[in-house]
Every structure is written in structure tokens, then in C-alpha cells.
Amino acid sequence: MSSSNSLMDSLFQRSLEDLIKGLRLGESNFISRSLEEIRREIKATDLSTKSVALQKLSYLAALHGVDMTWAAFHAVEVVSSSRFAHKRIGYHAIAQSFNDQTPVLLLITNQIRKDLNSSNEYEVSLALECLARIGSEDLARDLTSEVFTLLGSSKGLVRKKAIGVVLRVFDKYPDAVKVCFKRLVENLESSDPQLLSAVVGVFCELTRKDPRSYLPLAPEFYKILVDSRNNWVLIKVLKIFSKLAFIEPRLGKKVADPICEHMRKQNVGKSLLFECIRTVFSSLSDQETALKLAVVKIKEFLVDDDPNLKYLGLHALTIVAGKHLWAVLENKEAVVKAMSDEDPNVKLEALHLLMAMVNEDNVTEISRILMNYALKSDPLFCNEIIGSVLVACSRNSYEIIVDFDWYLSLLGEMARVPYCQRGKEIEYQLIDIGTRVKDARMELVRVSRALVIDPALLGNHFLHPILSAAAWASGEYVEFSKAPYEIAEALLQPRTCLLPPSITAIYIHSALKVLVFSLGVYFSAQDPTSSTLAQESTSSGSSVVNGFTYSSISSLVNMIESGLTSLSGTIDVEVQERAKSVLGFIGMIKHEMAEKATSQDTETEARKAIAFMEDVFSEELGPVSSTAQEKVPLPEGLELNENLEGLQEICREVLEPIAESNSSSFYSSDKVSFSVAKLRIRDQEEASSSLPPPLESSSLLAEHRKRHGLYYLSSQKADDHNDGDGNDNNTSNEYPPANEISVDSFKPKKKISKPRPVVVKLDEGDEPKTKPDASSSSNGEPLSRAIQTALMGKGKEKESEKDNHEIHLDTENTEQSSRRENKKKKKEKKKKNGESSKNRSRRQRDEEASVTKPVEVPDLLL
């Protein structure tokens, strides 16, 4: 009955072609119905029906992501079939779905071993391909002997695939090197180009992980480099030598000549030519002849119309630009021309090369060229240009910048570029220049004034950081301004409502600085000592810089007052507080100013307040090291890494909500209200308690509440007190200026003859600390040790075995002599133990030497 059911299933079973046709029709629920059908068919006893069902499942898993791990055992059953068509379906499903955690993985070990020993080379190929994909440590260990046998197979297809499997076997089971490595090296002498390509490809991958272990094979690779005519084999050999040349510098002089011969050939392939150039640029740059020839050959790529070849040429130049910049300068015209290419990758590589050419002499010219390209480029590449210029000019505390007035103007032009989105970077550099370079502050204020006055910039949110920096610089260095009234008017223009509240607060703070400076100048001019100087300067015909009259200072005060009145009712707390603070200051001095105009008294309250504010803003801000926080000593007794798990136990009564019997869940607001109510009840109970707390604890609690009252939940008594006395404002009026700043400059003025101003540099912390990559020693890897042991020979192991044998014989003799002569027992034991320790220490030294001794290149090559 079961055989008839299987026959019916196979007759009416839908094939893979039928499944594909049904998918293309787009029927709803077709995949789910097909999976149900596959689950039923795959349980059949007929292997043909099972294999077709597994084939359809593999198709759905590959294209539609259907899970097929449940069919792992059925795949093992299909693989065991004697028909090749079934084996191919089964091995494909196993390679597609198996991994190291598959439960039935070990069930296929014997089946793979059986197929590896098959006389059918195609079955052997299927087993090798499957092993290369899913080979685990257990499979690699159990099948190493079979792989070793196939490495010497007379069938080219089998041997080529066995060579490819070796890479997986070595990775999973390094001890397989002792068995297979010698035969793998023998295949380097094969005359079959396919076998040679396979084995060189394996060594190319192995060398990429640990090149030092393969230096003894340099003669074999050199012979292939000279004799081979296969471009792909030569490319892989060149990749190997590019790694080996770093380990053994003498190797570069030997391989430079054959590489130059390949580059001089007339009809050499572009792929081989580029690999030769890249090898010379990356590893043989010390060979002058090869380097000059490579620079000549790279021009063929730069002038080619194919964007792919042009990109490869530019990429090769970026490799050599660090050591030999002259190679890039010789191709400067081609690099600049590549900036206009349609391919974005070509333009990006050209930009990197231009940045590599920047120095103190040509930074102005290259920046001008790049800014012209930025105006004509798309938004993405435009910002790449701006970012590259910013990074290059700010490197090592602006070491290539001589004229900071020009650079500030350049930063202003960047802010004017339509697609500029580098506001944060420009902001940081402008604040950094303002704090480091004192001679550039006048130009900084001029550029900042131009930015703040322009109302068109307020609508671009990418420029808001730059405007924040410009406002900060205008207020911080207002003494360098020729028109403080214009700056204050620009800071309080109506369109500032488009700015975010954090930047609006900076605008208000800068307006306060302008006001304090202007009032200070005005009151200083009223003093007898300063008024005499003002009269002398006026009589001589020269205008007094920042001179204020009563009408002008009154106009400034009224303008600031009117501008801040609208901001005092804003929703943001910070903006509202700053606006009201400045308005309170203005209200205090306006009456005093009117009395000052009619009175000769110089010691007024307004003058004292202005003098106090001038002292507040007189402290100069300087650059701060990025490692400044690390230099702050840790207070004694402060444990930053202390575990705070006990906090939950301490605050359990406050943090846990009060659960009601008729409700199973609460909103977060309910939880907070319950906790607050509980705190208030507890405070009231403490207040009404008949037992007063100790005097010391109550005084400490009162002191803590006084210092950190903002973080305490007010009790009912405190609420009543606040209702009676008014609102208790514990917030601070201090608001730090922006961390970053940006500046715009217009009509840059070049001052080449001007000496470079002093740039404040910090002893440490100007540049971020970069930890060097700790390159793991190749001797610590099991595969590397196994490779080195296979190449160094068995001499060390034999010597070690001999030492162990001597130790064993010495121990036996010691025991026999101790039985015969008791008097000589201690002397013999000490003597033999001493010899044993010497032998043991010598053996340990030999083992360490076999591991730490560097692999040398044979003299045959050098």
C-alpha cells in the first residue's frame, strides 16, 4: 500500500518548473500551500519524490527566505542515494542550510568520506564542494587523510577542488598542516595552469593573514613570477610579494626587475599592469627605477576615457602620495581635470589627491580651485570638498595657515555656499581660531558682523551653528567692532525668531555684552581724565573709535529694550530668563543715566553695576585641551565604579508604586503621584514626630537642603511658604556660550607679506589620542605555528625526543644505584636531577627558539 502511495505521489507531484510557474502567476497564499505540499512529499519513502520536494524547498529558501532547517535529516537521506542527480540536490541543500550548530552535521561524515573515495570524479567534486562550505572542526579532523590523498590525484578536476578545500581545513583544524602542507607546496611546481592558479590562490589567502610564515616559499613564488604567462596567476603572486616585501626588505630589490619587465611589455593586460604599479607603490617604493617606471605607466590610466581605469590610476596615486608626493605633482593637471568627471568616485579620489598636495605655499590656490568646484557641484560632493578643506587647513593647529585673515574669509565663503551642511565644523574652527589667535580677532568680528546682519541666513537650519558662533564672537570680542550699535540691532532683529531657543539665548547674551561694553565706554568718557583725551582727539580732526554720546547710548538702550520685550514672553525658559535679566539690568541703569546727564556725581549705582559687569566679562577665554578632564585628580574617597545596585533596595519605598486591589496596572503618571504623596506623608510624619532628630543630623540635612534645594520635593509647609512669599527661583542665570563657533568672511584680503601670527598651542591634547593597533604576533596563532613547523623541518622535534630519552635513562640509573648504595643515594640523585634540569631547560629553550626564531629567506633568492 505504501509503495502504491509513493508511486501516485511521484506521478502527480509538481516539479520545480511547476512551482516557478505558480509563483509567477502571483496567486495568493501560493507559498504557504506549496510548503504544506513539500512537507507532505518530503516524508515519502521514495527518494525521487523526496529529492524533488527538497529541491523545491531549496528554491523557496534561496529566493523567499523560507526556513529549511527542519529538513536537515531529509537532506542527509537524499545524499545517501546512489543516483548522482539525487546526491547533487542533497549536497546543495546541505551547503545551503547547514552550519556548525546543525544537530545532524556529524551524520554526514561517513557519507562524505565514502563519496571522497568514489571512483566517480563528479561525486568526489560534490563532496569537496560541500566540505568547503560547511566544514567544521570535527569534519576537518576526520577527513584530513582523504583530502591529503586527493591532493595527489591524477584527475585535474579533483585535485583542483581538493586544493581549494585545504583553505577551509587549515582554518578549522590547524593540525592538518602537518599532513597536507608538503603536498600542497609540491603543487606549486605543477605545469597545469589551472592547478597552479588554484594553489597560488590558496597561498595568496594564507599570506594575507600571516605573511611571515611563508617567507621560505619566496623562491617558488619568484620562479612563478618569472616563468608564468597567466595574468591571473601573476596578479596573485604580486599580491603575495607585496605582503612579503614588508617583512623582508631585501626581497624588494630581487623582485623589482621581473616586475619592471612585465610593465615594459607592449600588450600587457591592464589588470596585470595595474597590479604591478600598485605593488611598486605600496611595497617597492624604495626602488627608484621601478618607481619612476610605475609613475610613467600610471599616466596611461589617468588619460584613459574609461572611468574605471581613471579611478584605478587615481587610487594608485593615493597609495604613493604619502612617501613620494612628487609622483602626484607630476600628474597635477590630470588630477585637477578629474574633478570635472561625471563619475563621483573619480571626483572623490581626485579630491583626496588634491588634499595630499596642500602645503603652506599652495593652500590659497588649491582652496580657491576647490571652492569654485563646490559652487558647481551637487550637494554631496560639495560638502565633501568643504569638509576636506576644513580638515586639511586645521591639521596640527593650522600649521599650513599663514594669513588667518584670508582663512577666516574662506570660512565665510563656505557658509555662503548654497549646499553647505558643514556648520558644526566651521563653528568649531572659528571659535578655536578666536581663542588661539589674538591677531585674527578683528577679522573674526568683521566676518561675524556680516553673518549676523544678513537676515537671509536665518532660514537655513544648516547654518544655525555658524550663526551661533558669529553671535558669540560679536559679543565676546566687541571691543574690535567699529559699530556696536549695528551688531546689537542685528542680534535682536525680528527674524531671529526662526532660530532655535538655544541659539536665541546666545544672541541675547551677546547683546548684553555689547550693551555692557558700550555703557562702559560711555561712562569712561565722562570721567575727567578721559574727557580731556577725547577733546584733544576731536580738536585734531580724528574721530574717536567707539565714541558714544548721551543720545546714541540712549538709543542703543531703548533699541535693546524693545527687542527683548517680545522675547520675555517666549515659552522657552532659558530665553525668557535671559531676556528678563537684561531688561532688569536696563531698568536699573536707565534712571541713573538720566540723573548722570544733569549731575556731576561719578559714583552712581549704575556706574558700579556697569563696572561689575565689565569685570564679569573681562576674563579671556582660551583653548581647552581635549584631555583636560583626565588630568583632574580624583578626590580621595570618591569611588566612580562603585556598584549602585543597593540603591533600589534603599529607595524601594519611594520607587515602588502602591498597588490597589481593584486595578492591575497603572500609568507612569500615577506611579509618580503615589511616590510623591508618600514622600509628603513621610515628611509630615517626621515633622509632627514628638522625638526630634539629633542636632547634628538635622543641621546636616538643613545644610544639604540649602545647597541642593532644587532637587528636593517640597513639603506642604514649603508650599505654603512659597505661596506667601512668592515664587522661589533657584535656577541659575549662568548659561555657557556655545561650544563651537562659525565665521563668514567676504572679499578675502591676501596679505602674503604679513608674518604668521602666534597660534596658542597646548602642550598635550591638541590632537586626539590614537592607540596604536596592537598587531597580534603571528607566533600565537595555531595555524602560523603549524606552518612554520612544517617549513622549518623536524630537526627540533628529534632533538627534543633525544633529550627526553636521556632524561628517562638517567632516572632509571638513579633508581638502581639508590637501591644498591644508600650512602651514595643523595649524591647520585642531586647529580642526575641536575642533569635532568639542564636537559629540561635546554629543551624548553629549543622549543621557544623554534617559535620565536624569525623565518629566514633562503640565500638562493637573495
From TrEMBL:
GO CC terms in record: Golgi apparatus
Keyword set includes Protein transport: yes
GO annotation terms (biological process): protein transport
Biased composition (Basic and acidic residues): 761-772, 794-811, 833-850
Region (Disordered): 714-862
Domain of life according to the entry: Eukaryota
Biased composition (Basic residues): 821-832
Domain Clathrin/coatomer adaptor adaptin-like N-terminal positions: 28-586
Keyword terms, alphabetized: Golgi apparatus, Protein transport, Transport
Subcellular location: Golgi apparatus
Presence of the UniProt keyword Glycoprotein in the record: no
InterPro entries according to UniProt: AP3_complex_dsu, ARM-like, ARM-type_fold, Clathrin/coatomer_adapt-like_N
Role of this protein: Part of the AP-3 complex, an adaptor-related complex which seems to be clathrin-associated. The complex is associated with the Golgi region as well as more peripheral structures. It facilitates the budding of vesicles from the Golgi membrane and may be directly involved in trafficking to the vacuole. It also function in maintaining the identity of lytic vacuoles and in regulating the transition between storage and lytic vacuoles.
Family: Belongs to the adaptor complexes large subunit family.
Subunit relationships: Adaptor protein complex 3 (AP-3) is a heterotetramer.
Name of the protein in question: AP-3 complex subunit delta
